[in-house]
Amino acid sequence: METKKIKKVFKDGPIASDFIAKSIQNHSHKTNIGAHNIFLGQVRNDLIEGDEVVAIDYTAAEDIAELEFHRIREEAFDKFDLTCMHIYHSLGVVQKGEICLFVFVSSAHRKATFEALEFLVEEIKAHVPIFGKELFEDGSHQWKENK
Amino acid sequence: MGDMKVVYFGVIQEKVGLQEDQVSAASLDELRETLHSKHDFLKSMTYTIFVNQNKTVGNIPLSDTDEVVICPPFSGG
After folding, report:
1. Looking at the predicted structure, is the pLDDT value of residue A64 above 80?
2. Do B48 and A129 touch (CB under 8 A)?
3. A91 is in which domain, residue-wise?
4. Cβ of residue A122 closer than 8 Å to a chain B Cβ
């Protein structure tokens, strides 16, 4: 049963676009699916007091984070009529413009995918112990905080 | 009483200058007090405590086999 095993979420470095394409392709044989929905988090070049963020270095309390991702997955499967769900988050350095979060949900119909996707992204941001260190061009840094 | 393992992450790890420490405390309140006296900046910041991987608020008894993880505000995604 797909929902019961703890799936590995973390990937070293950015999430490549061909990995995302392959993930979509992997679902072509699951013909009961009528709707996919994808959220991609991208590292933004925030300007903070004139300094540009050029990358984010992600660390996490990994064991706790994996448990929390598992809880969020289970909750989403209970709440929404989903066929499939995949979550990937980067660890380590991700440059501006690169992808650091990939959430992919599939269902027979579109409505469940819209609702589930928003739920998942908000839960991840609020409850998973991941820490982003924003790196500036001049080598300095500051720690990001989700709003 | 022995010491329990306390693990730090993110900006807390950076400011403390350690990935982990050994701290003696019989309860979570006592641990907070000890950490606040060792690391002044913790008094004025919001952090999340996990005891044996469970998010813990309020006060609970602790033993030296417990593992405590101290996390700054989350910033995933």
Report:
1. yes
2. yes
3. 10-143
4. no
Task: Read off the tokens for B75.
Answer: 């910033």
What three-state secondary structure class fits A113? helix
Write the DSSP string, A71-108: HHHHHHHHHS--SEEEEEEEEEEEETTSEEEEEEEEES
Chain A residues with beta carbon closer than 8 angstroms to that of B10: 59, 131, 133, 143
Total number of domains in chain A: 1
Q: Which residue in A has a C-alpha nearest to residue B8's C-alpha?
A: A61
Burial of A12 per CB tally in 10 Å (0-12, 13-18, 19+): exposed
The pLDDT value given to residue A49: 86
Note the pLDDT tens digit of each residue in A66-107. Answer: 999 999 999 999 999 999 999 999 999 999 999 999 999 999
ipTM of the complex: 0.94
Let me know if residue A2 belongs to a domain: no
d(CA B23, CA B39): 12
Q: Which amino acid is at B34?
A: T
| Position A72 in a domain | yes
Backbone angles phi, psi at A78, to 5 degrees: -70, -40
For residue A4, being part of any structural domain is answered with no
Distance CA A44, CA A108 (A): 33
- What CA–CA distances, in Å, run from A51 to A94, B14, B76? 17, 21, 21
Say yes or no: A61 contacts chain B, CB-CB below 8 A: yes
